[in-house]
Design a protein that fits this description.
Shape: globular
GO molecular function: triacylglycerol lipase activity
Bound molecules: 2-acetamido-2-deoxy-beta-D-glucopyranose
Protein name: Serine aminopeptidase S33 domain-containing protein
CATH superfamily of the largest domain: Alpha/Beta hydrolase fold, catalytic domain
Keywords: Signal
Order of helices and strands: EHHHEEEEEHEHEEHHEHH
Signal peptide: 1-18
Distance between the termini: 43 Å
Helix content: 25-40%
Number of domains: 3
Number of helices: 9
CATH architecture of the largest domain: 3-Layer(aba) Sandwich
Organism: Penicillium desertorum
Radius of gyration: 19 Å
CATH topology of the largest domain: Rossmann fold
């Protein structure tokens, strides 16, 4: 017995308001300074419309606001939940049920912070008391801004990453990481121990179901978080709340970032150029990640 979802917790349905919470638009005059024939602007607009459909398209402003009772909460507490409106989802296997939550974690300095997440599991009748094996799931880089939380995307950021686990009967408890979804803090991008807090605390709240046993799985940025969980003392913090930890699978963990960037630069002529550029694009976000952990940086 690992994970039991209590159907009686299913709460009021939300009103969805789509607003621009991600993706910077620019006027034509900016790229025209660098690009005589406007190819760059055209490509930018095409990319932007694809992005806008993926990021923040179903963002529910009310839900992602910091909960009214955050100030009296402690790490591991539940703050909010709502069912995900299935008709707004795309590319999710049929029969997947999903809820989104807000809970309390800690940042790199140990300060408590609100974080959002979603839980997806195979559809089952409310009455049958279904029990699922549980996975705390840590996603790969999805961005660094408020609108980049997987729980606010029509795809729930499924990229051949977590849905196959649901198809095999697991409940996937997937943190957004602090700063993605809710905006109480900036996202501490690539500070793996911060994401490790988000990944362990996500199995604490009772509203997430009773988790007797769990394991963590993460990919890329999340591979780094899952690895940090396995290495950390977090697993000994509150064994009663935590349930039994069975182990970690860290897929392509995003660690040793300098080596990664150098390999991308050196490999770009011979290997997959798009993939190498992708890594370099993410390296740009490291600047924001670093700023998010520096005290009193005006950029955060
Ligand atoms: C970005 O702004 C331009 C006008 O400056 C507009 O035509 C375009 O639709 C906007 N794109 C998005 C995705 O909002
Ligand atoms: C905050 O309030 C929600 C209901 O709005 C409740 O479900 C949750 O348990 C509360 N959390 C704390 C820490 O008080
Ligand atoms: C789910 O979204 C659809 C499409 O926007 C909408 O018609 C429906 O009312 C929503 N359902 C709920 C319960 O909010
Ligand atoms: C978060 O966003 C809300 C608007 O939705 C804004 O009022 C608030 O100031 C923002 N908080 C931070 C810390 O940026």
């Amino acid at each position: 017995m690992s994970f039991k979802f209590y159907a009686l917790l299913l709460a009021l349905l939300p009103s969805i308001q789509a607003i621009q919470v991600a993706n910077l638009n620019v006027s034509e005059s900016i790229p025209s300074k660098y690009d005589g024939d406007s190819t760059c602007y055209k490509n930018f607009q095409e990319g932007l419309s694809v992005d806008a459909a993926s990021y923040g398209a179903i963002y529910d402003t009310t839900f992602y606001e910091t909960s009214h009772n955050f100030s009296s909460s402690k790490p591991g507490d539940a703050l909010k939940l709502e069912p995900v409106n299935a008709t707004l989802l795309q590319d999710i296997p049929k029969g997947t049920t999903a809820y989104r939550f807000q809970y309390v974690s800690k940042d790199l300095d140990g300060m408590k912070i609100p974080v959002t997440d979603f839980i997806a599991f195979p559809y089952a009748s409310r009455l049958s008391g279904h029990v699922y094996p549980a996975i705390a799931y840590a996603h790969g880089t999805s961005g660094v801004f408020r609108g980049c939380g997987p729980s606010a995307m029509p795809s729930l950021y499924e990229y051949g990453s977590w849905a196959f686990l649901v198809s095999r009967g697991y409940a996937v408890i997937a943190t957004d990481y602090a700063g993605l979804g809710n905006n109480y803090t900036a996202h501490q991008y690539q500070a793996s121990p911060a994401q490790a807090h988000d990944l362990t605390k996500v199995v604490w709240p009772r509203s997430h179901g009773r988790v007797d046993e769990w394991m963590s799985v993460g990919h890329s940025q999340g591979g780094g978080a899952a690895r940090a969980v396995a290495e950390s003392s977090l697993l000994h913090e509150d064994p009663l709340s935590l349930g039994k930890y069975l182990g970690t699978i860290a897929q392509a963990p995003g660690v040793r970032l300098q080596d990664l960037a150098l390999a991308a630069i050196q490999g770009s002529s011979s290997s997959d150029v798009a993939s190498a550029r992708g890594v370099l694009g993410e390296a740009g976000w490291l600047v924001l990640g670093l700023r998010s952990i520096l005290p009193n940086d005006p950029q955060t």
